[in-house]
Amino acid sequence: MFTGIVEELGEVTAVENLGDAARFRLRGPVVTEGARHGDSIAVNGVCLTVVEHEGDEFTADVMAETLKRSSLGVLAVGSRVNLERPTAVGARLGGHIVQGHVDGTGAVLERTPSEHWEIVKISLPAELARYVVEKGSITVDGISLTVVDAGADHFTVSLIPTTLALTTLGLKKAGDPVNLEVDVVAKYVERLLGDRASRTADRSGEAGA
Fold first, then answer.
1. DSSP conformation class of 141
2. 92-120 tens-digit pLDDT
3. Contact predicate 159/166, CB 8 Å
4. Which of 27, 78, 157, 207 is 20 to 30 Å from the Cα of 10, by its Cα?
5. What are 159-190's pLDDT values in tens digits?
6. Pairing of β 40-43 and β 80-84
7. pTM for the whole thing?
């Protein structure tokens, strides 16, 4: 489990095409400290497994499904990425519960700078819109953010200077893709309410038979 609090801005140092997968080598001195084979590291919000670790770099394999459902497929040598290690038991939950399982991708639509912050508008896939609410939480490229405004096909977030300086959102331009993970609590609530409605309908049908 992650919290969406990015630990460092890393860099892709190599990309190997494996046909139905890809192998990335990434540099991140903070997240590689004490890293071991099999550890998890979130890369732009995608939970990846450390295959190899040497110095301040690690490699991770990304299967075709992940490349298809996330924006990792557009990464190239030199791309900057948000990196975060899993949260430790007993640590403070600075952001919100983030699984590292991308639900879909959006794109930066526009940026509106202000004196002390910046408003970023991001497109939202129709199937995810019901999970995004004003003042709710959403993960964008692995960053835990608060939704300012939620529309049918977009949402906005307000970024402070620290987020702009220390994450990829300070570098994204209009049209650039971003990974999105909605609040998992909303998905569980939807499933539970759906099951409850289904059971109620079944009982009603039995009673009317």
1. T
2. 777 788 889 999 999 999 999 988 889 99
3. no
4. 157
5. 999 999 999 999 999 999 999 999 888 888 88
6. antiparallel
7. 0.87
- Rounded distance, CA 46 to CA 49, Å? 10
Question: Per 3-state DSSP, what percentage of the chain is helix, strand, and coil (rounded to 5)?
Answer: 25, 40, 35
Q: What is the rounded CA–CA span in Å between residue 120 and residue 9?
A: 19
Separation in Å, CA 73 to CA 10, 22, 60, 62, 168:
17, 9, 13, 9, 16
Q: Is 67 exposed, middle or buried (0-12, 13-18, 19+ CB in 10 A)?
A: middle
Helix or strand (DSSP H, E) at 43: strand 40-43
The answer to whether 117 touches 158, Cβ cutoff 8 Å, is yes
Question: Which residues face 61 on adjacent strands?
Answer: 23
Beta strands in 55-176 (DSSP E): 57-63, 80-84, 104-113, 118-123, 137-140, 143-150, 154-159
Contacts of 98 (CB under 8 A, 6+ apart): 1, 2, 3, 4, 42, 45, 139, 142, 144, 181
